[in-house]
Amino acid sequence: LFAIDAAGLEVTRRVWLRGPSESEQGPAKQASPPVVLARHSKRAKTRTLVTPPPPRWTFASLPDQRVRVRVKGAPAGLHDVRIERGTTRSLPEDVAFATWDGAAWCAVLNVSGTPDPEGFWIKGSRADSTAWWHRGSVALWPTGTPLPVRVEDWASAQIEGDRVYESGVVMVRTAPLSGLPRGATGVRAALELSPASPPLRRPVGVMLSLPADRTRDRMGVYRRDGDAGSWEWTDAEWDSTSRSFRATSTRLGQFAMLRDTTSPLVRVITPAARPRRGD
What would the pLDDT profile of 46-91 be if each residue is shown by its tens digit? Predict the structure, then answer.
């Protein structure tokens, strides 16, 4: 690591990173007991089981096409948990035993051999020794190459070598629209390119096609980091030939076409009876 300040002074530090030892792997089993969610009704004196939300998958890019996979929301009391590639290559590096970090299951996998539409699986055993599994439905695409990232026939992105600091892998999926701004309606789902955290060297291009039965009136492309973020305008350009919007962004994340259905709001401010000094 090196840095140069405005005066031209330079400092350099060398940092070595190593993998965890056996004693640093973390617990292989959740400490918390299984939890049953229930909702009680005072009138009928009944108890209705509440279905918990599905597990949430998040990713972090690492060098040499490695990725840290973290799964939050799995059933409590699991043990012998592993995270696997969905592909059928049957290679040893496609499976990694996960450790419990206090809030989620975490593992690091080698994700070479992309594009790969099969995503990941998390598998484990419950306290009663029955099997449990859940699929992370994402497609794996390489970054830093001329190969375009595609989702079905309506979304694509271009993450070429001069756009990133180092080549890697991006996880791609269609995400349900949520948290829309007031007065906005969505078109299709959102294109999610994750993780959103690694910086890009230069902006990347994202293309979203407009359905044949929609007009581009009041339509635009918005972006946010993830489900908990807020949507931001991207100033995308309209391509009438391909009937698509083309946006550029310096960060990955979720991209969606939204239509603004709210009229502009104008508020009249009554000035003071006497102007203040300096106005």
Answer: 666 667 788 999 999 887 888 999 999 999 889 999 999 998 787 8
**CB burial class (10 A; 0-12, 13-18, 19+) of residue 159?**
buried
Quote the tokens at residue 34. 């299984």
CA distance to 43, 78, 242, per residue, from 82 (Å): 44, 11, 43
Q: Alpha carbon of 165 to those of 93, 202, 276: distances in Å? A: 25, 9, 54
Closest residue by Cα to residue 70 from 82, 50, 81, 56: 56
pLDDT of 246 strictly over 80: yes
Tokens describing residue 32: 């918390």
Q: Which residues fall within 8 angstroms of residue 60, CB to CB, at 6 or more apart?
A: 67, 68, 70, 195, 197
Residue 92 pLDDT > 90, yes or no? no
Cβ contact 133:123 at 8 Å? yes
Cα–Cα distance, 208 to 156 (Å, whole number): 7
Closest CA to 82 of 101, 106, 98: 98
The token pair that represents 195 in the structure block: 């993780």
CA-based radius of gyration for the chain:
24
* Contact yes or no for 136/148 (Cβ under 8 A): no
Backbone angles phi, psi at 205, to 5 degrees: -95, 140
Asked if residue 209 has pLDDT above 90, the reply is yes
pLDDT value at residue 49: 61
- Taking a C-beta distance cutoff of 8 angstroms, is the pair 201, 159 a contact? no
